[in-house]
Specification:
single chain, 68 residues, alpha+beta, 3 helices
Length: 68
């Protein structure tokens, strides 16, 4: 079971259309997607793909500085 925010090697195969790990790495590098290597293959996160696409994360609640 993987975390919902990760894209496992099989997810990247569907996304890129490539099955060879070296080709997936080249695709990620060419498209500016940060990725990681593991025994299972290349994986990344949804945030890394979104960042490469130029999408910004949804802003969370504003952090407040507490003065004591």
């Amino acid at each position: 079971m993987t975390h919902p925010a990760t894209l496992a090697p099989d997810d990247l195969e569907r996304l890129t259309g490539y099955t060879r790990q070296a080709d997936i790495e080249k695709w990620c590098h060419h498209n500016g997607v940060r990725f990681f290597r593991s025994r299972a293959g290349v994986w990344t996160t949804v945030d890394a793909v979104n960042q490469a696409l130029g999408l910004k994360p949804v802003a969370g609640p504003e952090k407040r500085k507490l003065d004591f």
